[in-house]
Amino acid sequence: MELYLKNVQSIKDKVLKQQLFANRSNYSNDIEIEVAKNGHLTLRKNNHYLYSRYDPIKEVSKFIDSQIDSLANIYCLFGFGLGYHVEQLMVKEPSKKIFVIDTEISTIQAAMYHVDLTKILSNENVRIIILNNPTQIQEFIRSIDSDGLNIKWIIPQSWISTISNSKLKEILEDIKIKEMSILRMKNIMEENFQNNIQLFDSHIGPLLGQFEGKKAALVAAGPSLDDNTDVLRQLKNKYFLFCVGAAYKTLLHQKIEPDAIVISDPHHFVFEQIKDVTSQIPLLFLATVNKEVVRHWIGPKIILFQEGYPLSEQYAKEHQIPLIQTGGSVATTGLDVLLKMGFAEIVFFGQDLAYKGNQSHSTHSTSNKTVSLYQSTFAVKANNHQRVTTSRSWLVFKKWIEQKIQQTTSVHFKNTSYTGAMIKGAPYVAGEHLANSAKNMENINFLDLISKLIK
């Protein structure tokens, strides 16, 4: 009891102290504290060990070493346990903010009876947050993500194993999967970045605002692109044909050369989008794109430095280069590029954000695949007023595009995808109508125009 009171007295956080006083009952029976083989305490919850039964602190120290991210502003750690993870984070990242999220105050109470936690509880960089249900955790995630900070999430797998709430477990496993993916991609992206900053001819700066009054077609790789390739052929030299990498071979198959191509993916498979192709059109690419794409390209190479990637932000700041918002996909990246270039009208081609039957992309797209029967899908309203299926990620991109449209009142947006998802602010227009209107437009050699601007 004396240790417990000592811990309580060291608490700086008034909210946590109130929660402890409000919950004075003994901690839950599903929490068991045992002595490990080396003499340190270990903890078992719901019959699952949170730590090693042999050397818990050594195991935690090794795990935290693998999670350290020097670029992180804040660490979010799920599960307090006996405080071992928090303590190791404090030692290894003494100046960083640490949010510790737990679903039960009783777990912390149990630790306070057995472990001296005064260094943690009195540390102003550490904030312990009790969130009792999945909704609260989702709201917390949304609120902290919206702050624009570089957040590193740490979720020990052993802690997930103790959770009985299936919805909560799903949320945490989703976050953990994303974190593992980011960790795997981190080295790839950095290697690409260091190579690509040696290879570019220009950045986006010289193109800013240079296309006012002109029109652009953003060509994505959705299934409806197959229905509009003839229209795009008629828009050549009228509209700026800006093609995402996944749609490039669909256009080439139809003998349509776009005015520029944009590629963003850091993985090696993106090279398939330009493999066996020789072209003089400009390539616009994220600084972290697969380095082989940039090495292979013989036309003008225009690099894009993206918001949210620290190396890009640092380089852009040092060289006074504008940043690009990516929105999470190559098409959303392309949209932000077109807006920064100053186009007065942007027409979406192949921006379906939905499946056509079981087809994901246009026929000759390098990304085309058949939808799995076991894949999670959602129903949305299409431009033909039918219901179409879409994916969770496409819903995210759709929302991002709609927000961008809402924020950009000076630009006219149109959408040619009759069977694709409706995009608020981009009403459907038949491709034939665009082709007829374009007959009276002046011819523009966009390749020459860009070449002059980036010299």
Automatic annotation (TrEMBL):
InterPro entries reported for this sequence: Maf_N, MptE-like
TM annotation in the entry: none
Residues covered by the 6-hydroxymethylpterin diphosphokinase MptE-like domain: 192-357
Glycosyltransferase Maf N-terminal domain span: 45-137
Protein name per UniProt: DUF115 domain-containing protein
Species in which this protein is naturally found: Bacillus methanolicus PB1
